[in-house]
Amino acid sequence: MNFMKKASGFLSKNTTSLIVLVAIITFFVPQLFAWVKGNVQIAVLAVIMFSMGVTITTDDFKLLAKRPFDICIGAIAQFTIMPLVAYFIAVIFNLPNDIALGIILVGCCPGGMSSNIMTFLCRGDVPYSVGMSTVSTLLAPLMTPFLVLMLAGERVAIPTLGMFITIMEAVLIPVLLGFYLNYKFSNSDNFKQMQQIMPGIAVIGFALIIGGVVSVQGARFFTSSLVIFVVVAAHNAIGFVLGYIVGRFFKFSVAKKRTLSIEVGMQNAGLGTGLAMAHFAAIPQAAVVTAVACVWQSIAGTALSTLFRKYDDKKSVAFAKKQVSA
Questions:
Q1: What's the structural domain count of the chain?
Q2: Which value, in Å, is the radius of gyration of the alpha carbons in the chain?
Q3: 259 in any annotated domain
Q4: CATH code for the domain of 210
Q5: Facing residues of 111 across strands?
Q6: Which of 99, 100, 182, 204 is placed for a possible disulfide with 90 were both Cys, Cβ 3.0 to 4.6 Å?
Q7: Containing domain of residue 76, as a range?
Q8: Is 59 exposed, middle or buried (0-12, 13-18, 19+ CB in 10 A)?
Q9: Which UniProt keywords are given for this protein, alphabetically ordered (predicted)?
Q10: Does any domain span residue 15?
């Protein structure tokens, strides 16, 4: 068990590297993860969301009750900024329908687990991050299909009911099951040990999803690749900036502004990939966009967290020098 806990910690710290490595290897050996598709992919996503659920406690829900205003602002920002930014990027860049659908799918997804990790790394407000991720995840079965329909319905046919069912099966039910088990067995030493290995399992799950997409769509990764990269990077960066601005507008603390920036900018692109593969198989480029977003958001989130930490360290050094000189 100690080995598994250490492995989980290693995987959590090296999420981005593992995902990129899996993507590269699978590109050259596509049959490696060709089995991760369809129902298997949805099942993997369910395991990832279950791993999130087992970390949610009743204290998290009590926190939501104590901070309704903050959570409300976060939820509104989550489901307005990124969907609308995705829509306007698609319009301004006159994107083809397949790429437009992919970026809109990413924009309409809730926050993901990786945002909680990035919030911790950048010295943000972790409880606030967990609260935002929890609320956006609970709202996702209704909000994600509705927003995709509103923003992409003129471009392609949107199976809203099918998306709702998929999100219920792969997201909401696993999260609630994980929460229930945490509530029921939170005092069990065995359960606590299982909780410590779940982050590593989630990372492996993300890698499997990326591997599955690359194995099926790898040949398409270099079709419109520059456009996809620019669109994904722009969408992510604008989300980071606008999230921070919203926090500043409401005079949040520095920690909460950073948290809002990370939470708004980083979506559950793994869910977007699962939805693209399950419901838009006839539009393969959409899944490529969501897969690129999975990788890019991890890289960009890590970079932003590092910048925030370096800024803090510089301020600390400057303050220390000022104190000495005084």
A1: 1
A2: 19
A3: yes
A4: 1.20.1530.20
A5: 267
A6: 100
A7: 32-315
A8: exposed
A9: Membrane, Transmembrane, Transmembrane helix
A10: no
Residue 190 contacts residue 253 (beta carbons within 8 Å): no
In the chain the first and final C-alpha atoms are separated, in Å, by 53
Residues whose CB is less than 8 angstroms from the CB of residue 320 and which lie 6 or more positions away in sequence, other chains included: none
Per DSSP, 112 falls in state: -
In a domain, 295, yes or no: yes
CB 107 within 8 A of CB 266: no
Residue with tokens 């040949």: 219
Helix pair angle (126-152, 113-121), 10° resolution: 140
In the chain, the amino acid numbered 135 is: V
Q: Which tokens go with 43?
A: 């099942």
Q: Residue 317 class from Cβ within 10 Å (0-12 exposed, 13-18 middle, 19+ buried)?
A: exposed
Q: What is the DSSP string of 156-203?
A: S---HHHHHHHHIIIIIHHHHHHHHHHHHHTT-HHHHHHHHHHHHHHH
How many angstroms separate the CA atoms of 292 and 274, rounded?
Answer: 13
Tell me the pTM.
0.83
**How many angstroms separate the CA atoms of 30 and 46, rounded?**
23
Contact status, residue 268 vs residue 290, Cβ threshold 8 Å: no
As averages over each run of 10 residues, the pLDDT of the chain (326 residues) reads 75 74 85 84 85 78 79 92 96 93 94 76 80 87 95 92 91 88 86 82 82 75 76 95 94 91 89 88 87 83 83 68 58
Residue 207 token pair: 């890698």
CA–CA gap between residue 240 and residue 81 (Å, rounded): 10
